[in-house]
Amino acid sequence: MAQNEMDTHADTGCAGSNWRILWYTGQVCEVSPFLPTYDAVNEIPVAGCGTVWSSPSTGQDYLLVGDQFLYFGEVLPNSLLNPNQLRAFGIGVNDNPFDESQDIGIDCGDEFIPLRTIGTNVYFESRVPTDWEVKHLPRIYITSDHWDPTDDSTFPEQKSREQIEMQTIKSMTSGMSRRNVMSLRMQQAQAQIETYGEIEHELGKISPVYNVKSLCSRIISSVKIAPTYREDIDQQDDRRKASGVITNDRHSKVNPKELARKWNIGLDTAKKTLEVTTQEGIRTAVHPMTR
Asked: Which of 67, 113, 225, 269 is the most exposed place for a label (fewest CB within 10 A)?
């Protein structure tokens, strides 16, 4: 008896002391260790291997068969299984002990292999099969006869967050009427608004700057909406008057650094702002002027 540990660092399944070779593929590998200070292990055969697992619910023994395995035998006390190699063959693997939505284990269809945990190790136990068991036990194949961990096409394309959300909505709304679908989406939107309101309320306690409603009211109050008709614009131009300010500074301080500080924007944005702004104005002085 030995453990079969879930390990994605193992490129392919590594059969240890609790497995035996069922057939050879004719290939051998040089296996590199996880540290370069250790020597590589040569002439490791690639084979189809088997181990006996007993169902805890029925007591039935099964011969688990894994193809494209590296066979180490007694040299490796506990075997290593790459969960992605099993998933590529259509075997469902949940090796996340923090996932409370489903049981932790390997779903082989008719049978479910529960996984255990010791510390950070996730595993299940099995033993070496006898000659009789190899011939007569029902078999469960857990890997394919082709496995290339370096081939990106082996793995499904990663979906964005928006694609996952849309897929979730489609699965939830399949078979629902249009009215029910709209009601569900309104409920989801309302839940997001309530969650955002709680976050905004807590941020507002830290500083008024984080209060979005207050910030929006200040921004909106400073916006001047121009008329859409040419005649109204001309009339508005006639009402405009030049205003004056008094300053003790001889020259204007409008520069990218000062603008970035006052407007709380990036220096590059401030430079671009000044490039597209005329900065024209009227300057007068009260006599007598001195230099």
From this structure: 225
